[in-house]
Amino acid sequence: MTRSDLVNKLAERFGQLTQRDTEFAVKTILDAMSDALARGHRIEIRGFGSFSISRRPPRVGRNPRSGEQVTIPEKLVPHFKPGKALREAVDAQPASSADASRD
C-alpha cells in the first residue's frame, strides 16, 4: 500500500473528509512520526507496533572494486517491531490472499 492508496482508502471510508483534508491528515501524521524519530523518541501504536532508532556501530568494510579497506561510519537507522495484534492478523491471513494483495 502506498501513501496515495492510504489517502484514497481513508477518503472513501470517511465521506465527510475531502481528498485534500485526508492528504493533509496523512502527511501531518507521517511528518510527526518522522520528526519524533529524528529527535530520538520512540513511537508506540498499541495493536500495531513500535518504531525506534537503532545504532549501527562504525565498522571496517571493503571496497568491492579495489578490495581496499574502507571505514564505514556509525549510523542511526529506524527500526519497526510489530505488535502482537498485527503479527496475529498477518499470520491468520492465508498465503494466497497475501500474494494477491501485493499486485
From TrEMBL:
<comment type="subunit">
    <text>Heterodimer of an alpha and a beta chain.</text>
</comment>
<dbReference type="GO" id="GO:0006310">
    <property type="term" value="P:DNA recombination"/>
</dbReference>
<dbReference type="GO" id="GO:0006417">
    <property type="term" value="P:regulation of translation"/>
</dbReference>
<keyword id="KW-0805">Transcription regulation</keyword>
<dbReference type="GO" id="GO:0005694">
    <property type="term" value="C:chromosome"/>
</dbReference>
<dbReference type="GO" id="GO:0005829">
    <property type="term" value="C:cytosol"/>
</dbReference>
<dbReference type="GO" id="GO:0030527">
    <property type="term" value="F:structural constituent of chromatin"/>
</dbReference>
<protein>
    <recommendedName>
        <fullName>Integration host factor subunit beta</fullName>
    </recommendedName>
</protein>
<dbReference type="Pfam" id="PF00216">
    <property type="entry name" value="Bac_DNA_binding"/>
</dbReference>
<keyword id="KW-0238">DNA-binding</keyword>
<keyword id="KW-0810">Translation regulation</keyword>
<dbReference type="InterPro" id="IPR000119">
    <property type="entry name" value="Hist_DNA-bd"/>
</dbReference>
<comment type="similarity">
    <text>Belongs to the bacterial histone-like protein family.</text>
</comment>
<dbReference type="GO" id="GO:0006355">
    <property type="term" value="P:regulation of DNA-templated transcription"/>
</dbReference>
<dbReference type="GO" id="GO:0003677">
    <property type="term" value="F:DNA binding"/>
</dbReference>
<comment type="function">
    <text>This protein is one of the two subunits of integration host factor, a specific DNA-binding protein that functions in genetic recombination as well as in transcriptional and translational control.</text>
</comment>
<keyword id="KW-0804">Transcription</keyword>
<keyword id="KW-0233">DNA recombination</keyword>
<dbReference type="InterPro" id="IPR005685">
    <property type="entry name" value="IHF_beta"/>
</dbReference>
<dbReference type="InterPro" id="IPR010992">
    <property type="entry name" value="IHF-like_DNA-bd_dom_sf"/>
</dbReference>
